[in-house]
Amino acid sequence: MKLFYTLVVLLIGQLSMAQEMDSFTNYHMNAARTLLESKDGNLLMGAYGEVHYEQPFGNNTQYNGDLDAERMVLLFGYKFNNKTSFISEIEIEHIKEVYLEQAFLNYQAKPWLNVQAGLLLIPMGLMNEYHEPTIFNGVNRPVISNALYPSTWREIGAGIAGNLPSAALRYQLYLVNGPMSYDNGAKLEGSKPLRGARQKGAQSTMTRPDLSGKINYYGIKGFDIGLAGYLGTTESSLFENIHRDSVNQMARADSSIVGVQMVGFDFRYQARKLQAKGELFFSNFTNTSSYNAFTGRDLGSSMFGYYGEVGYDVSSLLGMIRKIVPFVRYSQYNTHQSVDESMIPNKAYDRTVVTAGFSYFLNDAVVIKADYQNFNNALHSQTHQFNSGIGFWFR
User: Fold this and answer.
1) Which of 31, 156, 208, 368 makes the best surface tag, with the fewest CB within 10 Å?
2) What is the DSSP letter of 142?
3) Domain spanning 2-310 has what CATH number?
4) pLDDT in tens, 219-231
């Protein structure tokens, strides 16, 4: 926590150096939004990708390194007219896995009101929507975006989104299908509760819609501050073809679902050479006692975590033409923040990760990265890892 407070103080001290940020013309622009806001032609195309090398080490243990074409994403959009657009991302992970990451229609009913429908990114956290390799530090995405919210989290739904420049606000509000907690077996678990439950738009099940929303405020120079919420219930295949008046069948199905209430806070900051960001999340799960008893899993009743990161472009200090950004990130999260009365919290799920490295930009669209990570938990089990990689994006 001390590091997090130190970062906040540093950022406030740099506030007078900040440059104006607006909703769609700052360095946080993601690839899909860039296509959506483009004034070029009807057919829009782009791509981003990254290749990683990851090498665990230490503890007097030999480890194999891992080389991976982590992802290649192809973006396709089409502007039917000034009001109606289509955006899609096709992702190839690890060479052999192909996913549709998002695909939605956008209709601009008013300058401040867009109606969107299709496969949508859940507006939770920074990395779920802003994950092109040139706009985040570190070879891998922050661990919180893997454990506390399952980036890249996308589901089928519809809703509204827009920008209110006079109030310096952006907003998103969607109704979507919920995560799948049971489908021929349990999908939720204690270490990364929701990650295995994403339906990803593939023949998704929905009994009732979940609500997902976010509001961003960008009225303070240099800052973009977001507050997100998610409220709903998971889905289960056990509700298919059962009689409502069957007490046993309904009780069994009810034991396979969990209520989800999630809130997230994030900020991004840019002041000349200084950049920083942070995220904080709290999630509450209900019906976990029945779910764990039915499935034999170890899902906690709540989880909490945060990280703070600061980086600084030192190219001018080193007399370099190209941008180089050393950074440090401190993450702490616990997916067993609380558990039901029948369980003992697993201390291995109370984790701390320190990441330090640099991003070296050949230009605005190509980056070389390297970092060191230290993983620790409340059992004092410690591991180390060196990562390096390359990333790009273009349109």
Assistant:
1) 208
2) P
3) 2.40.160
4) 999 999 999 999 9
